């Protein structure tokens, strides 16, 4: 099965970063490029506009990024454009960032709670995650979701720990509906 575009280019960038000892530099650049692409709708529209030819798009990449990021990062962006994969830039760079985080044993945790956590509570959550995982540090992303009622939901990669009251109520409701069905089935 063919590898995803993000895997092919992300793996190549990661291998280059390790070989050249520029893992941290490329990580910072990747995060910066993602920020530019996500925060600038005009850039994405120009890069995906069918009436702007490839040479003009390559010039836009040079104008925006040359001198601000490494030649290797500019080269990657130019290659993505040349191979008609510029629309996959964010996915490629996010895949690369995930590879770097795995390499450096950094976890990325997404924590949802029904209210804003204090700094002490955030610290406790991070300490608990460090104790129960193989990561040496975490990048934490906290969001507030009042629908959770209480508890929290933590997502690390494809693993989800859901201790929210909303989920507990949903499970209880489902179990009760199963009990009612069984009782109704037994009635004469």
TrEMBL record:
Molecular function GO terms recorded: proton-transporting ATP synthase activity, rotational mechanism
Spell out the GO cellular component terms annotated for this protein, sorted alphabetically and separated by semicolons. Answer: plasma membrane; proton-transporting ATP synthase complex
Which Gene3D superfamilies has this protein been placed in? N-terminal domain of the delta subunit of the F1F0-ATP synthase (1.10.520.20)
Which ranges of the sequence are coiled-coil?
none
Which Pfam families does this one have? Answer: OSCP
Give the bilayer topology.
Peripheral membrane protein
Q: Does the keyword Magnesium apply?
A: no
Keywords noted in UniProt: ATP synthesis, Cell membrane, CF(1), Hydrogen ion transport, Ion transport, Membrane, Transport
Main location, first listed in the record: membrane
Tagged with keyword Membrane = yes
The compartments listed are:
Cell membrane; Membrane
The protein's role, per its UniProt record:
This protein is part of the stalk that links CF(0) to CF(1). It either transmits conformational changes from CF(0) to CF(1) or is implicated in proton conduction. F(1)F(0) ATP synthase produces ATP from ADP in the presence of a proton or sodium gradient. F-type ATPases consist of two structural domains, F(1) containing the extramembraneous catalytic core and F(0) containing the membrane proton channel, linked together by a central stalk and a peripheral stalk. During catalysis, ATP synthesis in the catalytic domain of F(1) is coupled via a rotary mechanism of the central stalk subunits to proton translocation.
- Family the entry assigns: Belongs to the ATPase delta chain family.
Q: What is this protein called?
A: ATP synthase subunit delta
Instruction: Tell me the lineage of the source organism.
Output: Bacteria, Bacillati, Bacillota, Clostridia, Lachnospirales
- Gene name of this polypeptide: atpH
């Amino acid at each position: 099965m063919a590898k995803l575009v993000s895997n092919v280019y992300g793996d190549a960038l990661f291998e280059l970063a390790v070989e050249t000892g520029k893992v941290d530099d490329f990580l910072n650049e990747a995060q910066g490029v993602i920020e530019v692409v996500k925060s600038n709708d005009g850039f994405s529209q120009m890069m995906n506009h069918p009436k702007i030819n490839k040479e003009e798009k390559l010039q836009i990449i040079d104008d925006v990024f040359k001198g601000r990021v490494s030649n290797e990062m500019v080269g990657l962006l130019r290659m993505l454009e040349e191979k008609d994969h510029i629309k996959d830039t964010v996915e490629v760079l996010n895949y690369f960032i995930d590879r770097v985080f795995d390499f450096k044993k950094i976890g990325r945790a997404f924590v949802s709670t029904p209210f804003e956590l204090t700094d002490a509570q955030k610290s406790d959550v991070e300490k608990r995650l460090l104790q129960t995982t193989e990561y040496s540090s975490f990048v934490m992303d906290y969001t507030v979701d009042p629908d959770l009622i209480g508890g929290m939901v933590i997502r690390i990669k494809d693993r989800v720990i859901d201790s929210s009251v909303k989920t507990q109520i949903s499970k209880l409701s489902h179990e009760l509906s199963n009990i009612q069905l069984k009782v109704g089935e037994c009635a004469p």
